[in-house]
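Exam prep: given the inputs below (a chain plus PBG), describe the expected output before reading on.
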Amino acid sequence: MSESVAYDLPHRPRRNRKSAAIRSMVRETELSPAHFIYPLFIQEGTQDDDIASMPGCKRWSLDGLLGEVASAQTLGVNAVVLFPAIAESLKTPLAEECANDDGLVPRAIRALKAKFPELVVITDVALDPYNSNGHDGIVQDGRILNDETIEVLCAQALCHARAGADIVSPSDMMDGRVGAIREALDLHEFPDVLILSYTAKYASAFYGPFRGALDSAPKSGDKKSYQMDPANAREALREADLDAMEGADMLMVKPAGPYLDIIHRLREHSDLPIAAYQVSGEYLMIKSASAAGWLDEKKIVLETLTGIRRAGADIILTYYAKQAAEWLRSAE
Ligand code: PBG
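Solution:
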């Protein structure tokens, strides 16, 4: 190498990466537990069970749930979304159990709000855990009925609101459900309950492990007549406009990692807060590759979550919420 290899470069972007202190001064995206929502599976009984399709996650008993939330909260995670595993014997074609005030979800909400008044309790509004055919809506002759489903979703949302939910989150993708749920909530004097709408929920194979966790896979057919085609982006903007018009408080994109462009487009398109769901398949890919020793779990998780935030998500739903909060606390 010759002695004088200093080029006359006025622009050396590396100067801004010179030390950890300078790097953190110019860092554009912050990752903090305040932005996380922790999805939790719940079940009847006193046992906490491992979930075969999602190693590291559990189906919690109500006691187990309270313990898990307490430890998440001490790490700064202050929002949870609940997913119930419902006994096969309670599943029906009209999913009546979803609006039972003594059902698993309302009991869990009441227990959480009694113990953690500041916790943000979010519920999933959709019929699949309660529906004997595993679909998010009511099925007749192989078709998913839109308007009939909405009536049941409104009853379900009201049941969650009565129990004390802060946010209801319709994940069913029926047309017009946000407006109908808003109207039902207002009519029954729950104007303060928020709606976090699954705005752009794609018909994704990344939900497989979740359906294993709840035993909620559709018994026949698929969800393509209501969840979005992974090939479409403009359609997400149309859904966003409708949700905003119907009174959604927050919009969600799901899955997150393979749909960063959609997060970005919604961020540019709408002034509403944007949430993104790092779903079960995304979780499992990282989990299994790390378990095999092929990836550095902590680094990969923090990088994926940072990427989701950088794309434009204000809020991230992730099964890694608690662990990521722990890692952030001990970050270099
Ligand atoms: C059901 C629902 C699903 C998920 C959240 N709510 C599954 C589905 O639509 O089939 C998936 C979450 C995940 O995969 O982590 N309405």
